[in-house]
């Protein structure tokens, strides 16, 4: 889960997402791995069909992840995916392409550690995804710092 904690922090800072970064990561992974949409393999196929096979191969492979642009994210996943994700996290779908361009290669790389698409998700990912789908569970301890339970797990 260290990767997701670091990713949430990076997204929050780089894209000024604040408390929206954690639900963005959770809901992105939830949609990327949704079995009704073909699971992770189905999500990856969207990029392959959009002509980005070399990019996807770099994320799945053991080498350096090639970057993807916000326009390429839009082209591969489409407005419907972005709008659905936006509604889940309280942001406009069009504002998500740049954060997703940062997020998607890292998540796919993490979910394919052996260079192949797994048939089951790692336990820590399943635990994260079992959290409520709307607003992440958060607690405000003294000092006003928001902590998410899956980051601390």
Main features:
single chain, Arc Repressor Mutant, subunit A, two-stranded antiparallel sheet, disordered C terminus
Low-confidence stretches: 134-153
Largest sheet: 2 strands, antiparallel
Spatial strand order of the main sheet:
1-2
**What is the CATH class designation?**
Mainly Alpha
Provide the gyration radius in Å: 15 Å
| Class inferred from helices and paired strands | mainly alpha
Order of helices and strands: HHHHHHHEEH
Beta-sheet strand percentage?
under 5%
- Give the end-to-end Cα distance, rounded to a whole number of Å: 7 Å
- Classify the fold: give the CATH topology: Arc Repressor Mutant, subunit A
Which shape, going by the Cα principal axes?
A: globular
Q: How many discrete structural domains? A: 1
Number of strand elements:
2
CATH superfamily: YidB-like
Can you count the helices?
8
The helix content is: 55-70%
Nearest-integer average pLDDT: 85
Shape-level CATH architecture: Orthogonal Bundle
């Amino acid at each position: 889960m260290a990767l997701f904690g670091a990713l949430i922090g990076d997204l929050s800072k780089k894209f000024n997402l604040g408390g929206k970064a954690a639900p963005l990561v959770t809901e992105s992974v939830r949609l990327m791995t949704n079995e009704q949409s073909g699971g992770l393999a189905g999500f990856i196929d969207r990029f392959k069909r959009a002509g980005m096979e070399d990019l996807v191969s770099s994320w799945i492979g053991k080498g350096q992840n090639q970057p993807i642009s916000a326009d390429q994210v839009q082209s591969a996943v489409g407005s419907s995916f972005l709008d659905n994700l936006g509604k889940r996290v309280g942001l406009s779908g069009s504002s998500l392409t740049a954060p997703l361009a940062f997020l998607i290669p890292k998540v796919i790389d993490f979910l394919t550690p052996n260079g192949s698409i797994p048939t089951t998700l790692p336990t820590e990912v399943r635990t994260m995804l079992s959290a409520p789908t709307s607003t992440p569970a958060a607690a405000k301890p003294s000092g006003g710092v928001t902590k998410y339970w899956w980051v601390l797990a």
